[in-house]
């Protein structure tokens, strides 16, 4: 070996970088201009790149959606087994929990409202008339062997007696399995939603089996933040997973100004399902999204981020479950996605992803009969599935689909005004 080779060998052992690599890697300033090749390079080219192309290689798991395990389209199927009283607005099912499998059956829990009238707003609400779609609700559940045909099993969590947390409404639940027991976390309302916003701290009930019976803990497990803190007014959509040996419970808060709510997602962790939960010092950990839906993916956590915020319509990933990055941009994402997550509670370091779940459509029949329905979605966000139809980057919309998005009366009037101003 020559002295140069010996030095190179020592350099390689100490740094893991070969001399050849070192010598060939130009610094950012000395990188040359080169014409981008006709065939998309698999690896990031070593010449000057625009920011967009830098990002293509640095920010995403793959340089094309088709090769990106965290990219998918979503398809929807109307499920069987739920009656909605001819869609007159008196029965609503919404905000499903993640789906779990137990004793050869799938289980889902959800908000169930059965009231004499559709929602009437906070001012007109009373002991029997609901203010909102999720007022005066209970948590019900259903089972299925195929995820398309569901058997409604009835109530899981009833409203407790006044003044116990949730006496006005129990809604928007999600499930945890921890050390052989089951825990349903949910929003506990102590006044009609809409009276002072949507204030409903997180409560929990537990059972030995997904079929119950459920014992209410009757205490708030995740309180609102202190005055002036981002989550001062609401903790919504509690969503537990097991990660790094702990319970990772994600949640949404509505903050800012009533009517112009900003929605972001926070994280609270615990060693015990009944708490205490510690809110993460970096909260909020996801800047966008609405109902919170996440799943273990490889050695980290992936999140479905839709509807609200700068980063809506993205799928995000955080190796540490805290520092999320955009992994893909997609469309027609499920509302209140409640995926079937087989490894939600196994503390896996090799999360396999998701292929289907439940979700909801809200206000399906207009304002006068406002109610929501459950639906099924399918996707390919799984390491064990390769469905090219789901990886197709374009959704094919018909002209009718586009024309359904009509200009409003107000917009038409504005355009008419602009046009007549131009003519005068
Ligand atoms: C949903 C969820 C929570 C809110 C309300 C019912 O979209 O974010 O559950 O409280 O709306």
SSE inventory with pairings:
Blueprint (H helix, E strand, L loop, with lengths): L2 H13 L3 H6 L26 H8 L16 E4 L12 E4 L5 E3 L2 E10 L23 E7 L5 E8 L11 E10 L2 E9 L12 E6 L7 E2 L19 E8 L2 E12 L2 E11 L7 E2 L13 E6 L1 E6 L8 E5 L6 E5 L8 E2 L11 E11 L11 E10 L5 H4 L7 H5 L5 H15 L1
Antiparallel strand pairs: 1-21, 2-4, 3-4, 4-5, 5-6, 7-8, 8-9, 9-10, 11-12, 12-13, 13-14, 15-16, 15-20, 16-17, 17-18, 19-20, 20-21
How does this model look, in words?
- The chain has about 425 residues and is mainly beta.
- The protein has a single domain, classed as Glycosyl hydrolase domain, family 43 (Tachylectin-2, Chain A, 5 Propeller), CATH 2.115.10.
- The protein is about 10% helix and about 35% strand.
- It has six helices and 21 strands.
- Strands 1, 15, 16, 17, 18, 19, 20 and 21 form an eight-stranded antiparallel sheet that branches.
- Strand 9 and strand 10 form a beta hairpin.
- It is globular and about 75 Å long.
- The chain starts with a helix and ends with a helix.
- The relative contact order is 0.13.
- The protein binds 3,6-anhydro-alpha-L-galactopyranose (AAL).
- The site of 3,6-anhydro-alpha-L-galactopyranose has 11 residues, from strand 7 and strand 11.
Quick overview:
This protein has 424 residues and is mostly beta strands. 12% of the residues lie in helices and 33% in strands.
